[in-house]
What does this fold into?
Amino acid sequence: MNIKLILIVVLIIALGGFFLFKTNNGGKTMAGVNDNKKVLVAYFSRTGEQYSVGNITEGNTAIIAKIIAEKTGGDLFEIKVVNDNYPKGYNELTEYAKKELQQGARPEIIAKVDDFSQYDTVFIGFPVWWGDKPVPVYTFMESYDFNGKSIAPFCTHEGSGFCGTQGMDKTGAKVLKGLAMYGHVAQNDKAQAEKLVSDWLKDLGY
Ligand SMILES: Cc1cc2nc3c(=O)[nH]c(=O)nc-3n(C[C@H](O)[C@H](O)[C@H](O)COP(=O)(O)O)c2cc1C
It folds into this structure.
């Protein structure tokens, strides 16, 4: 066999293998199952004095949200309240947040997401506050039509772990497996935070 013939045979085998793989995956490669899905990464996060990390200028959850947006190509949306009276001191903030939660407050959010209907998957991120979500996250979830969409929840915490999907199941969305990460890991160990996010995204098909 001359060299040209050998090359042609190798090419045919390689192409055959590729098409067989595509067929077995319903026409999609594993890494590409979410290729055409539009992603929104919405998050709530605080700067100032936080448990275990001291005074921070970028919130723990914000750091994770940005990693997710970068890895999925999603659009970022920060959930910010119109009247931001959240104290910058940790103890004061915990007292303030406890009252808001007890009152079932729904503070108004500054901006609206542009054309929410374009998104297939909405990542929703928040710090665990009193074993629950900060109330602006409830305002966010109650402000949009999630029917037909998926929600991928993520949170940072300092020991509680994932706070559950309260409120998310009521939106009509399919709730995907969540990610819970220690706030101090998000803040102080970028490599570990990136790895945890990557592993989770892989599980979700990204
Ligand atoms: C008001 C408040 C309540 C908190 N409640 C909890 C809690 O119940 N469980 C927990 O593990 N961490 C709790 N934490 C710690 C935060 O979840 C953690 O520091 C988080 O990473 C902060 O994220 P952020 O910087 O994005 O706001 C609380 C912090 C605050 C300020």
The two ends are 43 Å apart (CA to CA). The helical segments are 3-24, 60-72, 90-103, 135-142, 183-188, 190-203. DSSP finds six helices and eight strands in the chain. The first helix runs from residue 3 to 24.
